């Protein structure tokens, strides 16, 4: 097995919640992943934590695999995919968690592929006035952003501190101040209309340094198709930033 294959190796793990396919080395797991929550002990939940129905021999208790709380079958009947915890099969979740997981499915089914396919941007480093046209894409293991042009950069996702998405439709001077989203915010960015994403400011820590490096990404305007592709990539990156913050806040 090569070094790369060893790094990307996965192992099948059985937990009380179900089968999970996880990286052989925990340090190499996806930065968007979530840890399994501890289950609320049976003795601490005599009633459903949603409808307050008392558990007995007929009304059994079930644990939501995403939040770990106790529910009756009626309140925890849905089995929904949960890729952020690497479950092989759909798992039982309460209604609230199932809705969240269903929304995240779009990211894993569609937007993750958009990020991996990449898009072209003009990239400006720090306060430099020079920009370089680069293809930006997410690595297959979801742990790095690769930037390829005359130069090559690899940015570890875990070291990203701030993501600011710039949008069009504002007067000059406003764009860099007001029209952004950070890991702490949830402004909705779409691929069309008045909130089309046109660029991104990203800050991250370089290896071996505590100082932040800033990169500004500006969508190319040479072809309309490239502009649409860049907007879709930025919209996907916006969603990825939100998931990244959630993972860190766990």
Topology overview:
Blueprint: H1 3-8, E1 10-15, E2 18-23, E3 61-63, E4 70-72, E5 78-80, E6 91-93, H2 95-117, E7 119-125, E8 131-138, E9 144-148, E10 152-156, E11 160-167, H3 175-178, E12 197-205, E13 212-219, H4 224-249
Antiparallel strand pairs: 1-2, 3-4, 5-6, 7-8, 7-13, 8-9, 9-10, 11-12, 12-13
Helix pairs in contact: 2-4
Description:
The protein contains 4 helices and 13 strands. The strands form 4 sheets. It has a 7-stranded antiparallel β-sheet. The protein has a two-stranded antiparallel sheet with strand order 1-2. The model is unreliable at 1-6 and 170-194 (pLDDT under 50). A hairpin with a 6-residue loop joins strand 12 (197-205) and strand 13 (212-219). Helix 2 packs across helix 4. It has 250 residues and is of the alpha+beta class. The protein folds into 2 domains: 15-96, 2-Layer Sandwich (Herpes Virus-1); 114-167 and 197-244, PH-domain like. Keywords: Metal-binding, Zinc, Zinc-finger. Residues 42-97 form the FYVE-type domain. GO terms for molecular function: zinc ion binding. InterPro entries: FYVE-type_Zinc_Finger, ZFYVE21_C, ZFYVE21_C_sf, Znf_FYVE, Znf_FYVE-rel, Znf_FYVE_PHD, Znf_RING/FYVE/PHD. Pfam families: FYVE, ZFYVE21_C.
């Amino acid at each position: 097995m090569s070094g790369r294959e060893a790094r990307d190796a996965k192992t099948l793990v059985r937990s009380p919640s179900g089968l999970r396919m996880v990286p052989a080395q925990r340090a190499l797991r996806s930065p968007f992943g979530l840890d399994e929550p501890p289950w609320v002990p049976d003795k601490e939940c005599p009633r459903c934590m949603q409808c307050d129905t008392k558990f007995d021999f007929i009304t059994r208790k079930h644990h939501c695999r995403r939040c770990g709380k106790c529910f009756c079958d009626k309140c925890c009947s849905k089995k929904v995919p949960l890729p952020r915890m690497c479950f092989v099969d759909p798992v039982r979740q309460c209604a609230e968690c199932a809705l969240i997981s269903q929304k995240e499915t779009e990211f894993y089914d569609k937007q993750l592929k958009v990020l991996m396919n990449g898009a072209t941007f003009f990239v400006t480093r720090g306060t430099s006035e020079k920009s370089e046209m680069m293809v930006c894409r997410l690595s297959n293991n979801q742990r790095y952003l690769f930037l390829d042009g005359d130069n090559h950069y690899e940015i570890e996702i875990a070291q990203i501190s701030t993501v600011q998405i710039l949008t069009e439709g504002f007067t000059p001077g406003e764009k860099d101040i007001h029209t952004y989203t950070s890991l702490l915010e949830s402004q909705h960015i779409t691929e069309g209309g008045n909130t089309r994403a046109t660029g991104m400011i990203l800050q991250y820590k370089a290896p071996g340094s505590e100082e932040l490096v800033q990169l500004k990404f500006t969508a190319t305007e040479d072809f309309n198709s490239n502009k649409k592709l860049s907007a879709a990539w930025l919209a996907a990156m916006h969603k990825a930033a939100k998931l990244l913050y959630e993972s860190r806040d766990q």
